[in-house]
Task: inverse folding
């Protein structure tokens, strides 16, 4: 049995001091310790962005792929190697903007994956541009000096509409609660989506206040209508497992007889 | 908070060990990150604080010799807050933070820890647990004093550390 | 050794494609070899369509320019195929009474023909039996002429229609019989092709199917698919079979997902591929670079169609060459292989599957609509020695604590640990990295990794699979081609020899890294080299020139390039014309 810190690789993170992602990293290691996860049986798959650097900081296998494609990479791996514990992760720009289509289809496809989005409502690696979750009037990016002027979308509500069977939101200020959430997400059969409010101290220092705004909610329904009602009246700072409705993960097992590949060609 | 903590010596010890160990781990992590961000004085300071913290952890562990502590998952501890009292919030740190700011953070966590131990000592009905918690609180009060002394010894005027370098874009 | 080409046109459910397929199958049952190509309008159903079947006593891998017999069920929109079905004065035309008005441009020409146009009542024959299938009546008629209207025709009809139920099959049999009987009263004024010595249990297959066979036989166990013409049928063929081998096919949400899924599976140690066509390949380029940088085995089959953009989706062209060879950003050495014939789709894909796994990189296979969707009667294909698993097993296991995923070895190939192996844990990365897989922006690491990734492909250029050479001893002219033009060039070679002009033909299978030494050797004693390819910009020709040093260029015979785009099929006649037009040395 390994202790949480034994899941770290020793590679020193490049994240800014004060970044929320350190907490997420620690929450993952704590969840792994609780799961008694063998490091070699876990694979962390990411795209591009600050949070997507995370796989290298763990001593499991990892794949740091291209921007926005963590989910398909993870899907291919999990379908090909169902024996592995595959966790896809990344940021809000990676997952909801460039990778938005994959997010919808991963929710719908329900492969047995965990998808952790470290949401800081900003593109950090490219100097602080607005992302799909940035508030409408946030005017701190030179790229959108008037603010994005479009409403941020709601990842959890979107996940529900797209068919995800496990939807949760955690906060980097509560790594122990997040670890518990991740533990449940890994145990959940099928696709599990965990949005983590994880502050960016460099580009959105105001997010330090999130600690005061976050409130725990015990919703935990398996009724999509209830979950939808909750998520559409949510202020974005509720924390907890909102929806949990397991269904058989894809791919489904089929009976298939051994076939002679060449038979069909013979006249 | 789970009141079992006030009555169960083993549970209290399990909390104390984790509290000290996590404090050390986080300080090492912070030392690393300040090294990566080339704040050398603070790297050294946090490394020192981490080593100190690690010694506290082994002191607490010494009290547990030969005793089987309950194995708790990360979320099964009863902390007054979301995290153990020695785990300062990540958002309190900055790559250009000064020694004074760092020591203020350290002071705050030592005070929180002192509060945690004192609280247990005050609330418990178990004499042996009270004795143990009071002992830990006394130790912790020493740590608080030590950090305060260092703060006073700094004696350097507060410098203007306005960040003149804009963030850059690595990817 | 007479071959013969029969074209069939129709529209709106006249069933010419079914007719073509059943005719080829019936002919194969009677000992003919042959090849069938189909051509469609853009409609999903009811559009104008045509099938062309070429039959003869020996395996046929190409089409020639002539149409000997044109069977017309419907003249509507015939003009749209006029380029692809060139009629000559000697083309015999048989049309159904219900074929409608002949195209105006053709009408006067047709009337002036010595052969004339034979009008027969296939619709009436079918209707008399209670069937609307004039194509089946026509099938019986032509099958009788070919001498395959007995058991071979029956089994061809059964094969095509058995899912429709016994009644439909029985009706088709009787309509076909009626068609066959018509031949007594209305003989076809044309000698049928020579029948072959019946092939020993021949195969009937499309290039797309054979590509799928090559992939699965060589160990592909994960396929990610996004539908695109003309690659979808390769994916569909595998979908029906891969699970019986313990593998899986996933239909992805887009090509970006498809290629990344395949990379994910490849990282997991499961040989993986995707198949697409030009537009999809363009979308996949970024992730193909990831496979190169992260050294993950990846096979991508590109069944080329007319481009750019949506282009001509249903027709063949060799115009993705540049994208396949140059399309990746950064210095991204990878392998590009071109299938040299329908049967070679099997060989090339199987070889490529092994290469991807053995070299831990991207291997692109170029096929095209002609190879992918044409159907050929061919001798059974041999089992091949290529296997992805075998090559993986040859890699040393990770060496515990000192494991370096991207170790700078002599061969350039580093031991690849698979998830699940303790001690091999690493994070694969598209970021430049050090030997130990840690992201690095250092010049030294970058140069080392670039060189290593290049080095691991170098030895490939010397592999015996680089291409096919059909040499004639006295030849002073070399026809150089790649991909699907190879069988066409071979037929040109044969016809030129009959006319007393011996030429040598080289088909290049390995496009990147370019097997330059082998190519130079084959050009050595030639007076002329004619390079042929099916694209507008002579893409391969420019690539070849760019690889030659000035000294090499000086020592070479004159190089003439003949390249033109699709959708017109390349014909042997066209190549012969080019050879005959070469300046005499």
Result:
């Amino acid at each position: 049995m390994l202790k949480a810190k034994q899941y770290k690789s020793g590679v020193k993170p490049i994240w800014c001091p004060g970044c929320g992602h350190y907490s997420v990293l620690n929450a993952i290691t704590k969840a792994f310790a609780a799961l008694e996860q063998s490091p070699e049986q876990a694979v962390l798959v990411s795209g591009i962005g600050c949070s997507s650097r995370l796989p290298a900081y763990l001593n499991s296998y990892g794949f740091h792929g291209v921007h926005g494609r963590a989910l398909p990479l993870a899907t291919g791996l999990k379908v090909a190697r169902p024996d592995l514990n595959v966790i896809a992760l990344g940021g809000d720009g990676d997952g909801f903007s460039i990778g938005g289509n994959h997010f919808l289809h991963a929710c719908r496809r329900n492969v047995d994956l965990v998808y952790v989005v470290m949401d800081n409502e900003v593109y950090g690696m490219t100097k602080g541009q607005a992302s799909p979750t940035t508030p409408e009037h946030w005017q701190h990016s030179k790229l959108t000096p008037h603010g994005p002027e479009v409403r941020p979308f709601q990842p959890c509500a979107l996940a529900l509409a797209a068919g995800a069977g496990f939807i949760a939101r955690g906060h980097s200020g509560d790594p122990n609660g997040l670890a518990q959430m991740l533990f449940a997400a890994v145990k959940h059969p099928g696709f599990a989506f965990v949005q983590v409010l994880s502050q960016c101290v460099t580009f959105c220092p105001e997010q330090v206040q999130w600690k005061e705004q976050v409130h725990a909610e015990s919703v935990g329904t398996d009724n999509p209508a209830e979950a939808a009602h909750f998520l559409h009246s949510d202020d974005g700072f509720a924390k907890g497992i909102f929806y949990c409705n397991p269904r058989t993960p894809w791919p489904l097992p089929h009976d298939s007889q051994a076939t002679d590949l060449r038979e069909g060609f013979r006249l | 908070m789970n009141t079992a903590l006030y009555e169960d010596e083993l549970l209290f010890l399990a909390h104390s060990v984790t509290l000290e160990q996590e404090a050390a781990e986080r300080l090492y992590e912070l030392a690393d990150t300040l090294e990566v961000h080339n704040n050398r004085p603070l790297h050294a300071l946090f490394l020192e604080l981490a080593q100190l913290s690690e010694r506290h952890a082994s002191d607490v562990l010494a009290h547990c010799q030969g005793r089987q502590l309950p194995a708790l998952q990360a979320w099964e501890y009863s902390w007054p807050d979301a995290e153990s009292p020695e785990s300062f919030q990540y958002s309190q740190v900055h790559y250009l933070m000064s020694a004074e700011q760092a020591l203020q953070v350290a002071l705050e966590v030592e005070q929180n820890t002192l509060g945690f131990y004192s609280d247990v000592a005050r609330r418990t009905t178990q004499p042996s647990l009270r004795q143990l918690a009071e002992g830990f609180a006394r130790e912790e009060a020493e740590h608080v004093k030590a950090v305060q002394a260092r703060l006073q010894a700094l004696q350097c005027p507060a410098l203007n550390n306005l960040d003149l370098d804009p963030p850059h874009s690595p990817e | 050794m007479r071959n013969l080409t029969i074209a069939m046109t129709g529209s709106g459910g006249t069933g010419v494609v079914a007719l073509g397929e059943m005719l080829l199958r019936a002919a194969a049952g009677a000992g003919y070899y042959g090849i069938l190509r189909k051509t469609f309008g853009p409609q999903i159903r009811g559009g104008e369509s045509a099938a062309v079947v070429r039959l003869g006593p020996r395996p046929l891998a190409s089409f020639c320019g002539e149409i000997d017999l044109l069977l017309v069920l419907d003249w509507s929109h015939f003009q749209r195929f006029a380029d692809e079905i060139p009629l000559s004065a000697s083309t015999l035309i048989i049309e159904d009474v219900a074929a409608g008005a002949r195209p105006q441009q053709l009408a006067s020409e047709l009337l002036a023909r010595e052969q004339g146009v034979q009008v027969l009542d296939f619709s009436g024959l079918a209707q008399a039996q209670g069937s609307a299938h004039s194509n089946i009546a026509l099938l019986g008629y032509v099958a009788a002429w070919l001498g395959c209207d007995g058991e071979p025709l029956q089994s061809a009809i059964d094969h095509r229609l058995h899912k429709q139920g016994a009644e439909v099959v029985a009706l088709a049999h009787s309509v076909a019989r009626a068609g066959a009987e018509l031949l007594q009263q209305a003989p076809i004024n044309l000698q049928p092709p020579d029948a072959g010595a019946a092939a020993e249990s021949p195969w009937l297959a499309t290039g797309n199917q054979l590509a799928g066979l090559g992939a699965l036989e060589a160990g592909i166990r994960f396929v990610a698919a996004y539908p695109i013409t003309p690659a979808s049928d390769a994916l569909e063929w595998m979908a029906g079979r891969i699970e019986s081998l313990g593998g899986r096919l996933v239909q992805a949400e887009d090509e970006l997902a498809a290629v990344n899924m395949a990379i994910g599976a490849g990282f997991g140690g499961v040989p993986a591929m995707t198949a697409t066509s030009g537009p999809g390949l363009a979308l996949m380029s970024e992730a193909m670079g990831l496979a190169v940088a992260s050294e993950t085995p990846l096979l991508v089959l590109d069944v080329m169609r007319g481009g750019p953009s949506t282009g001509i989706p249903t027709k063949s062209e060799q115009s993705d060459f540049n994208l396949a060879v140059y399309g990746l950003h950064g210095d991204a050495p990878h392998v590009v292989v071109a299938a040299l014939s329908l049967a070679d789709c099997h060989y090339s894909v199987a070889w490529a599957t092994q290469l991807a796994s053995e070299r831990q990189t991207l291997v692109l296979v170029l096929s095209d609509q002609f190879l992918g969707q044409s159907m050929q009667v061919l001798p059974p294909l041999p089992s091949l020695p290529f296997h992805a698993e075998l090559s993986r097993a040859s890699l040393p296991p990770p060496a515990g604590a000192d494991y370096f995923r991207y170790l700078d070895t002599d061969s350039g190939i580093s031991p690849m640990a698979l998830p699940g192996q303790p001690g091999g844990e690493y994070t694969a990365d598209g970021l430049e990295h050090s030997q130990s897989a840690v992201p690095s922006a250092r010049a030294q690491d970058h140069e080392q990794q670039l060189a290593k990734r290049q080095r691991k492909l170098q030895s490939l250029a010397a592999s015996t699979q680089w291409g096919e050479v059909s040499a004639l001893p006295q030849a002073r002219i070399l026809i150089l081609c790649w991909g699907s033009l190879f069988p066409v060039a071979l037929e040109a070679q044969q016809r030129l020899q009959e006319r007393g002009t011996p030429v040598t033909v080289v088909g290049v299978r390995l496009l990147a890294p370019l097997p330059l030494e082998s190519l130079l050797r084959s050009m050595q004693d030639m007076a002329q080299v004619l390079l042929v390819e099916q694209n507008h910009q002579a893409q391969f020709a420019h690539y070849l020139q760019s690889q030659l040093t000035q000294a090499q260029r000086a020592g070479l015979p004159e190089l003439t390039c003949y390249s033109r785009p699709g959708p017109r099929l390349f014909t042997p006649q066209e190549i012969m014309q080019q050879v005959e037009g070469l300046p005499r040395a």
Q: What stands out?
A: The longest helix of chain B spans residues 9-36.
